[in-house]
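Marked as duplicate of an earlier ticket. Keeping the data here for the record.
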Amino acid sequence: MQERSSAHSLGISDEAVELFRDAGAIDLHIDSFIWHRVFGYDLGRAHRGGWLGRGFFGHADFPTVLESGLGGATWVITTNPLRSARGRRRVFEKNLRALRLLLDDAPGVTHVRTAAELRAARAAGEHGAFIGIQGGNALDESLEALDVLADRSVLRVTLVHLTASRIGGSSLPTSSRAGLSDFGRAYVERLNELQIGVDLAHINRQGFRDAVETHDRTQPLFVTHTGLAGVYDHWRNIDDEQLRAVADTGGTVGVILHAAFLGKRAVSAETVVDHLAHIIDTVGEDHASIGSDYDGSIIPPKDLPGIWALPRLVQEMLDRGWADARIRKILGGNALRAIEALRG
C-alpha cells in the first residue's frame, strides 16, 4: 500500500513508483551535510522543504530516502575555500569523521565504498551511502594530504567548486580561465592511483580538457551534477564535446535539478528528462544518470521539490515510451556500472 499511497500523492501511476523503488535508484550528488554543519539540520528527521519552501534545503534526509526507495547516493562534504590549506585539510578530516558517524548511527543506512557493498546494502533493504568531496581544495595542501583517502572511504572528488584553487579554475564566469595547474594534473594522477573517482562538475572547459588528457583512461570519469548545454546553453552546463569525453571513458553524467541550469522558464520534470534525452541522443543510454544536488542551495522545479518526488521523472520517461531497461539504467544502472569499473 505504500507504493499506492505514494503514487496517489504524487499524481502518477503505481507503475512509476514501483519501477523507481525496484530499480535501486542512485543520486550522484546530495549536499545535505553542509546544512548539518551550518545550523544542525537534522538528517535523521523527515523534511518537506525548509524555511524558504523548496529553495536551498529541506530536500533530502535519511528517513525520506528510505521511504522513497532511493537505493544509494553520494553524500557530499563541501569545502570552505576561505580557510587556509592546512585549515581546510583539518576541517575536512573532522567532517569526514562526523559524516561517517552520522551514517553509522542512521537506521537503515550503510556507508558503502564499492558497487559490491552497495548491492549488499540494497539486498539487506538499506540505503547505500557513498561519501564524496566537493572542492578538491579540501586536500590541496600537498599530494600527501590525499593519503587520508587511501582507505577508499570517499568515492569521488569534484576537482573544483565555485572558486579557482591551486588545482585549477571554476566554470563560474568570474573565475580564472586557466586550466589545470601542474599540481592539478598531479592531483588527478594521484586520485587515479587511489581509485578515487574524478568528478568534472564545476570545472572550466580548459580544465576539463586538461583533466581528460591527464586522466587514466582505464577509469571512468564522472560529471555528477550538471545540465547539458545542448538543451540550455548556460555557463554551468557541459557541451557535447565534454559529454563525449566522459562517455569515451565509460563514465556517466548526472543531470542536476537546479531549475536555473535547466531552462529559462516553466522548468519541470519534463525539462529534466529533456536533458537526459540529450545525453542519450548524443552518446547513448549507457551514460545518463541523476545527480540532483538536492540541499545544495538549489531551487528545484516545482514538481520535484525533494527526494520524495523523484518518481515523477519515471512517469515522464514512461510517458515518452521509454523501455524499462533504459529507465533502470538512468535511475541507477549506469552509475553502478561506472562505480564498479572504478573499484569493484
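See parent ticket for discussion. The beta strands are 26-30, 72-78, 109-111, 127-134, 156-158, 197-199, 222-226, 252-255, 288-290.
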